[in-house]
Design brief:
8-stranded antiparallel β-sheet, globular, Jelly Rolls
């Protein structure tokens, strides 16, 4: 199944790559300077930097990530990111983010 690419925040798009009720994989594509606003959700999230450079804000701490880096975001942890160099994040959510469908 092919899912559409949809705009989210300015300079950011989202495309669901695969999903089941228990797990979802999503590609987020960022332009330079784009911001993933601070937010939280009940889903556990794993983020993998496919390309680009990002500063992640996670529970009050900054983490600079580049290609091949990853991190786990616990349920309800406040997080967001700033794109330093355009790129793509591959995010996995458990359970699925029904709001993305």
């Amino acid at each position: 199944m092919t899912f559409p690419t949809v705009p989210t925040d300015p300079g950011v798009t989202r495309q669901v790559l695969a999903e089941t009720p228990d797990l979802m994989t999503v590609a987020f594509r960022f332009q330079d300077g784009a911001v993933g606003k601070l937010h939280s959700h009940p889903h556990v999230q794993a983020t993998y930097v496919e390309a680009g450079r990002f500063t992640f804000h996670l529970d009050g701490k900054d983490h600079d990530l580049g290609p091949g880096d990853s991190l786990i975001i616990s349920s309800n942890a406040k997080h967001g990111c700033l794109c330093i160099e355009s790129g793509t994040l591959i995010d996995t959510f458990s359970p699925r983010r029904d709001d993305f469908l």
